Amino acid sequence: MIAPSRLSLRRQLLLWLLLPQLVLWAGGGLLAYRFALSYVEKGIDQSLTQSVRALARQVKPVGSGLLIDFPKAAQDVLEQDPDDRISYMVSSPPGQFLLGNQRLPPPPHPPLVAGDPVFYGSMLDGRPLRIVALDVSYGEASAPQILRVQVGKGLAVQQRIARELVADMLVPLLALGVLLSLLVYGGIRRGLAPLTRLTAQLENRSVNALSPIGMTQAPSEVHALVLAINGLLGEVARSVQQEKRFINDAAHQLRTPLAGLISQVELAQRQTSEAGVAERLSKVRTGAERSAHLVHQLLTLARTETQARREPLDLATLAREVAREWTPRALAAGMDLGYEGEDHLTIQGDALQLREALSNLIDNALRYTPRGSSITLRVSQGSDGAHLAVDDNGPGLNPDDMAHVFQRFWRGSQQPGGCGLGLAIVQEIARRHGGEATVTQLQPQGLRIRLRLV
């Protein structure tokens, strides 16, 4: 029994389709934010480079000293934004404050190469800064000096711009994601509609309704499922039909011998002589044996209507074994039972069913062939498959009876002991092996029943 899943197929599809979309949306937002910060940082670096070089040009060496030409207007430009003001510092030697509006932290990896700006990040008064440092050489060759110019800019405004940029990107993407989710849900609902219709058809069927399910418009996967269900329904219908036929045949065929047994027992009870009782009991025994044979044949017929379990077997060896098993009975009946044909012939077949078919053919030949006749089992390989035949040189059949040989409960003779199912079983076994059974009148007399096995 298959345990039901906690999630329906529709919910599982929605989960596997929408969850990756949500993850990709969040990952895309994070990457977009990182890219936006990267581009903002590049813009800040360009601005800081221009500012630090402009500030360095305002510091001019004069002899062994410095002339700082930094007018008030230039200072106001640097400090014009109070929310995101630019911090600057001039020191010489590096770290010894000369000029600026803020003491800035030194670069993390000194010394610096003169003339090459170095960028680094730091914290100042609890706010993040992006700082550039530029060292400038001055002084005489005998007494070189280093001037360090540092300019820092806060990142709060740039981070806010990056967040706004990402938000402006993600909001439309979110709207598109919602629209896509609705389309996915509608597509899944439409795609699963054939399964819903199939479920409704199965739920509305009665127990005895085993006709095929009709579904003309359906995806290939659902169509394959419907074909598999129809195949199963067909097998169940055939099984039910076989069961009904078996019950009807058993009820019909057992009614007469059982009624005869009851009447013979009643007559035996009224007999006063031992000879009369013995005669009635003999008839009771004959009727019981016929009933037992009938039940055995009915059960064999029911078994042969199931699928044959075909495995590699040597048909010639099997035929010789069956011939040896029936030889004592043939000798007791005064008949010659032999084998002719291939020494070995391997086929795919059900050994139990083929043994039953051979036993039925030999039993029929022994019952209806006169004493002194000969019966021959033959195994040969033909162009259309393997051939298994039983020949006898008895009286054969009338031409009008040839068409009825394999019908159920048809008997060509009224001799006691038969029930008309032996050859029907043979035909069913041949069909289960992909072939058929045929009957042929032999010359000058006799009968051949041959099974073609594929």
How far apart the termini lie comes to: 37 Å
Show unreliable segments.
none
Please state roughly what percent of the residues sit in beta strands, choosing from under 5%, 5-15%, 15-25%, 25-35%, 35-45% or over 45%. 15-25%
Spatial order of the strands in the main sheet?
4-3-7-6-5
Number of domains: 3
CATH class of the largest domain: Alpha Beta
Structural class: alpha+beta
Q: What is the gyration radius calculated from CA atoms?
A: 52 Å
Number of helices: 9
Task: Based on Cα principal axes, name the global outline.
Answer: rod-shaped
Q: Report the CATH topology name of the largest domain.
A: Beta-Lactamase
Round the mean pLDDT to the nearest integer and report it.
79
Catalytic activity: ATP + protein L-histidine = ADP + protein N-phospho-L-histidine
GO molecular function, one term: phosphorelay sensor kinase activity
Main location: membrane
EC number: 2.7.13.3
Q: Care to describe what's here?
A:
This protein folds into 3 domains: 11-162, 2-Layer Sandwich (Beta-Lactamase); 213-305, Orthogonal Bundle (Helix Hairpins); 311-453, Histidine kinase-like ATPase, C-terminal domain (Heat Shock Protein 90, 2-Layer Sandwich), CATH 3.30.565.10. With 454 residues, the chain is α+β, with helices and mostly antiparallel strands. The longest helix has 51 residues, at 220-270. It has helices at 9-57, 72-78, 156-191, 193-203, 220-270, 274-304, 315-332, 351-368, 422-432, and strands spanning 59-62, 65-68, 86-91, 97-100, 118-124, 127-139, 144-154, 311-314, 336-341, 346-349, 374-382, 385-392, 436-441, 447-453. It has 9 helices and 14 strands. Helix 1 (9-57) runs antiparallel to helix 3, helix 5 packs antiparallel against helix 6 and helix 8 (351-368) runs antiparallel to helix 9. Helix content is 51%, strand content 20%. The two termini are 37 Å apart. The mean pLDDT is 79. The chain is rod-shaped. Strands 4-3-7-6-5 form a 5-stranded antiparallel beta sheet. A 5-stranded mixed beta sheet has the order 9-11-12-14-13, covered by helices on one side. This is histidine kinase. It catalyses: ATP + protein L-histidine = ADP + protein N-phospho-L-histidine. One of its GO terms (cellular component) is plasma membrane.
